What does this fold into?
Amino acid sequence: MQSSLSSPPHASSHGTPNRAAIIWAALIFATMLTWLVGERGDAGPAITALLMTIAFAKGTLIILDYMALRRAPLMWPLIALGWMLLVCSMIGLAYWKGLAA
Amino acid sequence: MTPVSAPDSASESTARRLPGDLAIWFFILAELLAFGVFFVVYAFTRANHVELFNAEQLTLDRTSGAINTVLLLTSSFFVVRAVQVAEAGFSRRAAPWLAAAFACGAGFVVVKIFEYAEKIGAGISLSSSTFYMFYLSLTFFHFMHVILGLVIIAAMWNGARTGRYGPDNMNGIETGAAYWHMVDLVWLILFPLIYVMR
It folds into this structure.
């Protein structure tokens, strides 16, 4: 009975505990990477592209796995991922505009 | 002879399903749109004041921002575990996971209050500069979403504690979880955009 606490008796539509934990570890690692970039004072187009790519990757994990949109009707993950891609791209475009100014 | 029920149960187990209440997803889309507009307006305003934004960004505490990111991500993980446990039929066992999620969210609030107190103590306000106007208004807008999320998690905790959730009654806990993950999602852009990108 004790094992059922960490391992549900049937497959969950919200993924498995192990998958959720691995995703959490990946998200924390990515956050540390972002923090490190900030602490080092790294800047420039490549760094901004890296930061936005990390943000998009983290957002994709949240949207598909934690929000469980991976198993939702296709329209919903596409809208959420499309929002993420659009916002990250616009931020990148604005950064480029700032360089040119 | 193929059993008639086999294809039905197979299709049920693989059927695509939107978790939680449909209404919360329309609310989430509206919230994502609002945050998205704010983020893009911030980015294009920065493009016209790069030196000012870069200089004043250095006064922000990136470590506090990173700690708050870790707290929100960990809180989201605990909420996922609560949903998984509830779906497995152990509603009451979801309560400790939700209590842990609440504690992490409350930790975010405490860190943010210290951050705001330090800035206000230094005489910084909405009218100090364009950068601080964006910093304070964007982070406070998000902060209010965290407060609402904590109220929702508390309600979910109460429901789990009383055995309300289970494989046949997931709507409430999935709806609250979706909102909380949205609060996490927008912070994942807010943190690098305001605290790190330069």
Summary: The first helix of chain B runs from residue 5 to 14.
